[in-house]
Amino acid sequence: MVVAGGFGAGKTTLVGAVSEITPLRTEETLSQASAVTDDLVGVAGKTTTTVTMDFGRITFRDPDVVVFLFGMPGQDRFRRTWGLLSEGAVGAVVLADTRRLQDSFAALAHFEASGLPFIVAVNEFDTAHRYSENEIRTALALPGHLPVLTCDARKAHSAASVLVRLVRHAQNLATGAGL
Ligand SMILES: Nc1nc2c(ncn2[C@@H]2O[C@H](COP(=O)(O)OP(=O)(O)OP(=O)(O)O)[C@@H](O)[C@H]2O)c(=O)[nH]1
Ligand SMILES: [Mg+2]
Description:
Layout (H helix, E strand, L loop, with lengths): L1 E4 L5 H8 L8 E3 L18 E3 L3 E7 L4 E7 L7 H8 L5 E5 L8 H10 L3 E6 L9 H7 L8 E4 L4 H20 L4
Parallel strand pairs: 1-5, 1-6, 6-7, 7-8
Antiparallel strand pairs: 2-3, 4-5
The protein binds guanosine-5'-triphosphate and magnesium ion.
Magnesium ion (MG) binds next to helix 1.
């Protein structure tokens, strides 16, 4: 599975929260040079960014299914990496931060074009306004069948629920039940 979404939406946090192994991370310090492209409004405390990927693993029980998790870099200048990381994936979670909803557009467009099953999970940051599912669906122009849920990327249980929802959605699409 891949975890995608805009810069600072909480992808690295989510992979780290659910992974049963110490996640592989590729964080680099945000520098003065990136200030022009990596807008820190809403994520002022952020000091690093993912430059290649996060990698984690989770096992679902009964039946045992081992899932590899790939967290993507957020900025759309890494778009080439998104395609490479999502090749052969079961599906994608597009994490959204309602303080910077526009940052989700590039990932949404990517998965719409690629045809990979995806769901939207709103990572509810403490300082962010809470919007209804319908408001988010409208703002992101999402079709009715596409699951939209909320989560706290820091909490393993919440993050795992998102992944389970993605599996169900992918299964529904495969059997035609979700159309
Ligand atoms: N309050 C709160 N903080 C969060 C949550 N999720 C992530 N954070 C914090 O937000 C910051 C950004 O999280 P990351 O996980 O690095 O975000 P990312 O999407 O991987 O960022 P990029 O790789 O740079 O695109 C970190 O300081 C996290 O601790 C959350 O659900 N609530
Ligand atoms: Mg990251």
